[in-house]
Task: structure prediction
Amino acid sequence: MSLAGKCALVTGGARGIGQAVAIELARSGAHVAFCDICDREEAAATLAAIEETGQRGLFVQTDVGDRAGVEQLFETVLADFGKLDILVNNAAANIRKPLIDLEVADVQKVWNVSLWGVFHCSQLAARQMVRQRAGSIVMISSVHAARAFPNSTAYNGAKAAVNHMALTWAAELAPHGVRVNIVEPGWTDTPGERAFYTEEQIREEGRKLPLGRLGRPEEIAAAVRFLVSGESAYVTGSCLRVDGGAVLPRVTTG
Result:
């Protein structure tokens, strides 16, 4: 699944799933730009890993919820790479509170990144890809899009909306040679989970999943690599769930 000569942009690429995706695309031959809200020092590990593959890497500090910042991001990437073949919308935010405790500002913060950020990046990428008559956009969505986990109102709603937008864009952009697909990770072992759970809780809850563990970022990255490669040239408007069976009915024995 060679991506030689391709140019990719990954949002939220400094750690977790985004980092794994950026590195995997570079290993497959793509030049990779990535953005994140962190500073260059925190992004250094991802950038170094990309460059160690022999591919060009580019980091731009950006808040994807800021339209002006996203426009500058695309100007920078296109000035450096000259084209854009792949966009992976990974950046997301979540604030976990019951509905009755949510502040409007909480919802706005989540939607600015997880919903509006996807719109901003996808629109600008689509405009470039339509001019090129080719391209691939992948949404890193979530099983939250279909399963209403409590205390995640804004995140659940954003991911459901992202899925439906992706299907809409897949239909609109197909005549222009641009494919749009979705990856739905389940519970994945990322640094962000440590803000909500201890190591012991992560191990214990992972054992309750059908495959007995949390997913690894690299496993999500492999799904993305497939969807942006020539191997999936006839795939658009599809959702690839990579969740270890998390949404399956639980079967008890004994």
Q: What stands out?
A: The first helix runs from residue 16 to 27. The chain has seven helices and seven strands.
